């Protein structure tokens, strides 16, 4: 489960001892008679009559318990007829036979022991005495794990002392054990040697849904998780994590002043393990790497990826498979495809250098009704990790990060926005022209690929390594050719220069194009799977599978080479398979520019500089050269 995250309560202690109530002093009324009886019994040498509670306490203290760590794992009083004794003895024999497999130093360092589930279930003694151990681990995990933990507590490893395991969380006493004291308010003594403080953190995770798991009209589900000990600070907002733990319930109003809804309970997960995808990036070289998508590929997926790779016109096939519902706009689809594959980030792990982003940003500007929003949604659905937002309903905090205050504990929590959730993926922003002041929040995220926050005494920086694809309508509804792109969008040059590709779509009448477009729309509305005039490339195997689109020599422009010819058969790549192919390319393909390609880009950049000075057009800076390098690296995929 990859999702929205909030961390609160850093370093909050949970105490396992409490301050005793106040006692002593004189009494009045009926309490004076009780004090007189106590003094009388003391003077005559008689002991007061024992209550059932005192008998229970005395019998518990005098009873011999063979398991020293019983109180750490079970809240029940030890009994020789306890149903857990047989399980504890079985687990103890299981670990004793495998004592050579465990190292005490490693156990103390990690704070846990790795148990082979298959070996546990296939053990003869365990299968005989506990035949349903797998079901018990699933149905009653707390009691079964407590039996295993107590068994490990008993096992001596290489003649070392028993492992010193941490006890359970302390609970406040309801009343003072002294009979003469009526105190019910207790405060933990932090200076007491019996007080144990524990690092504690609460996070909120959001599920990651694929197409087969996505349900229409339902938002992604979230759940809170509690992290303790070494699991604290193991992830930050925007990370993709896998959490293993035990589902528990808590009072919804616990810790707050409102006690009206005492019967309202919420589910939370007490985490035992946190697996973070951060740090599992695959390095390409000394100065570049690509973030891994952590996608799992079956043998069937690998064969399908190999078949796609062997296509003769692969780039044309990918472009026409991106959003086949929209007719035309091949160049725009090509730019979106380049953003999906992404480039290689440079100097990501070098602290002595400034990282250089490898993800291109795309801006699509055009008249209404040309399919910009549908192409953005298609790109976000195909991406291994994509977030789609609408600019007219999005705030600055919703894009970056929100600092909220928890009503129950009073701690501040970080809630990730769209850019943080789209880390190592893409973020589609529709209605980009209607955002207003939110444009300023994108400047840092688009260039430095991070979001800094300094608010309420909290200063932090969160990663936002995402490709931004935006769609905008010009001012006035239609694009004015007499004005520049910045004037049509009312957008500053600082933000506009951060986009690697800017596409301008104009709704100009064309009889041939309108005829093909109308046929395509009618075929789609009629429910036909294959349109008459809109088609992709027929798949044909090629002997050379390493040929890049840059190596194809043709006098036709790219828009003509990507355009489909009427009469060709439709064979688009399904979106689920295309997502697998993109994830495989982002994880295992690491393009690098050759010397000849770098020289061509340098000459082209110098020519652009000369033309911009001569024609007094938009300035050409080094950002355009970096954009050329990024787009060329993506094409090499």
TrEMBL record:
The EC number(s) this enzyme carries: 3.6.4.12
Record GO terms (molecular function): ATP binding; DNA binding; DNA helicase activity
Keywords from the named record: ATP-binding, Chromosome, DNA-binding, Helicase, Hydrolase, Nucleotide-binding
Alphabetized Pfam families for the sequence: MCM, MCM8_N, MCM_lid, MCM_OB
CDD domains: MCM8
Primary enzyme class: hydrolase
Domain MCM C-terminal AAA(+) ATPase: 314-521
Annotated Gene Ontology cellular component terms: chromosome
Family label: Belongs to the MCM family.
Protein name, per record: DNA helicase MCM8
Origin organism lineage: Eukaryota, Metazoa, Chordata, Craniata, Vertebrata
């Amino acid at each position: 489960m990859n999702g929205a995250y909030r961390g609160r309560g850093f370093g909050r202690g949970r105490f396992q001892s409490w301050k005793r109530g106040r006692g002593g002093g004189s009494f009045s009324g009926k309490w004076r008679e009780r004090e007189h009886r106590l003094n009388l019994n003391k003077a005559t040498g008689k002991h007061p009559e024992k209550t059932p509670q005192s008998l229970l306490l005395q019998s518990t203290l005098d009873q011999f318990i063979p398991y020293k760590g019983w109180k750490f794992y079970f809240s029940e009083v030890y009994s020789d007829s306890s149903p857990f004794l047989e399980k504890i003895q079985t687990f103890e024999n299981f670990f004793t036979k495998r004592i050579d497999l465990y190292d005490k130093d490693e156990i103390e360092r990690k704070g846990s022991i790795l148990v082979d589930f298959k070996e546990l279930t296939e053990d003869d003694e365990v299968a005989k005495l506990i035949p349903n151990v797998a079901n018990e681990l699933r149905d009653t995990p707390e009691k079964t794990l407590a039996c295993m933990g107590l068994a490990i507590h008993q096992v001596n490893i290489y003649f070392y002392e028993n492992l010193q395991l941490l006890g359970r969380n302390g609970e406040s006493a309801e009343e003072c054990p002294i009979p003469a004291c009526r105190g019910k308010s207790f405060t933990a003594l932090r200076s007491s040697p019996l007080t144990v403080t524990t690092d504690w953190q609460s996070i909120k995770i959001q599920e990651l849904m694929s197409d087969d798991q996505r349900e229409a009209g339902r938002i992604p589900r979230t759940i809170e998780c509690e992290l303790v000990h070494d699991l604290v600070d193991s992830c930050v907002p925007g990370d993709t994590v896998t959490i293993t733990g035990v589902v528990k319930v808590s009072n919804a109003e616990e810790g707050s002043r409102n006690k009206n809804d005492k019967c309202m309970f919420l589910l939370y997960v007490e985490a035992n393990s946190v697996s973070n995808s951060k740090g599992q990036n695959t390095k390409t070289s000394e100065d570049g790497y690509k973030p891994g998508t952590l996608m799992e590929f079956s043998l069937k997926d690998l064969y399908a990826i190999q078949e796609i790779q062997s296509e003769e016109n692969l780039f044309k096939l990918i472009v026409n498979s991106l959003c086949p519902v929209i007719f035309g706009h091949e160049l725009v689809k090509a730019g979106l495809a380049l953003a999906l594959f992404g480039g290689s980030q440079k100097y990501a792990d070098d602290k002595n250098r400034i990282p250089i982003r490898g993800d291109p940003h795309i801006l699509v500007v055009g008249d209404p009704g040309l399919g910009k929003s549908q192409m953005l949604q298609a790109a976000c659905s195909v991406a291994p990790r994509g977030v789609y937002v609408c600019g007219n309903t999005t705030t600055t905090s919703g894009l970056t990060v929100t600092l909220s205050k928890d009503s129950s504990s009073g701690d501040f929590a970080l809630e990730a926005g769209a850019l943080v959730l789209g880390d190592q993926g893409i973020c589609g922003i529709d209605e980009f022209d209607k955002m207003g002041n939110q444009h300023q929040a994108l400047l840092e995220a688009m260039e430095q690929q991070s979001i800094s926050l300094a608010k309420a005494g909290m200063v932090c920086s969160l990663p936002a390594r995402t490709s931004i694809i935006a769609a905008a309508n010009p001012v006035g509804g239609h694009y004015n050719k007499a004005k520049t792109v910045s004037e049509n969008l009312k957008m500053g040059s600082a933000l506009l220069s951060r986009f690697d590709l800017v596409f301008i779509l104009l709704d100009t009448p064309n009889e041939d194009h309108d005829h093909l477009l109308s046929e395509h729309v009618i075929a789609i509305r009629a429910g036909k799977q294959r349109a008459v005039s809109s088609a992709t490339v027929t798949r044909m195997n090629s002997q050379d599978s390493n040929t890049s689109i840059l190596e194809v020599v043709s006098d036709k422009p790219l828009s003509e080479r990507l355009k489909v010819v009427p009469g060709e058969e439709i064979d688009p790549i399904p979106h689920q398979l295309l997502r697998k192919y993109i994830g495989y390319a982002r994880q295992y393909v690491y393009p690098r520019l050759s010397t000849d390609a770098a020289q061509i880009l340098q000459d082209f950049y110098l020519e652009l500089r000369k033309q911009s000075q001569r024609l007094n057009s938009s300035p050409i800076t080094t950002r355009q050269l970096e954009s050329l390098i990024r787009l060329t690296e993506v094409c090499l995929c």
